[in-house]
Amino acid sequence: MNSFYNLSIISAEVKKCLKIILCYPMEIVFWCIFPIFWAVPFIFQGNALVGGMESEAFSDLTGTTQFMPYILIGAVLNTYVLSALYGMSNSLREESYWGTLELILGSPCSKIPILLGKALNEAVTSTLFAVMQIFICIIIFGLDVAVNQILPIMLIVILLMLGLYGLSIALAGITIQIKQSHSLIHTIEYLFYLFSPVRYPVNINPWIRMVSLVIPLTYALIVVRGIMLLDKSLINLWQNVVILLAIDIGLIVLGYYIFFYIEKRARKSGIISTY
Length: 275
Known about the structure:
mainly alpha
């Protein structure tokens, strides 16, 4: 009975969030298109610098001479980072704008199903955005995706989302305390952008490579690019998968601990009702 009750909460939260985003169709169009076009200047810049779409120096760092698919894959997977940070982390701030945050936190139901509902909604919308972006990459840029690569890539995307939502749940808790989370979210976004191999290989700098080792996006990109560009299997990349899973577990445990600690503290201090 309790499990059915929690599932109904998750379902209601997903439906609510989907109804809200469907009210803003231009936002859907934005997230389906512009993450790809943010990567296009890097492709043009690389083409201008090396005089073509292939580079032997790039191959020495990444194992592939084609930097365009490398950048496009980074742009698509980075969509999950942006969606998790801006959607999931900022979700409680939006509840505050709508005047429903106090009702949610004061309700007798567990907060875990509410957070799971928000995470599931972000997973659905992020996947929709990513599929549309891949479709654009195939049509316009000629990106190749083999059928036998789909399931392994889906597994890695799921593992990536788990880690990102663990981080986002922690940020959602921090948002309850500090109210305005945009500065914090932007900071983390730029750290991911700088220290993960989204646009360039982290091997170009030892400090960037060192920091990238604790970011889940790094391992997701290594595995997906290995599958798509280097024709490797998950068995060949198992070490990166295991590390990604370990980071996921750490972020999920830490994220829930931070959220419930701050939520309990906010209840006692009465800061929830303040702007």
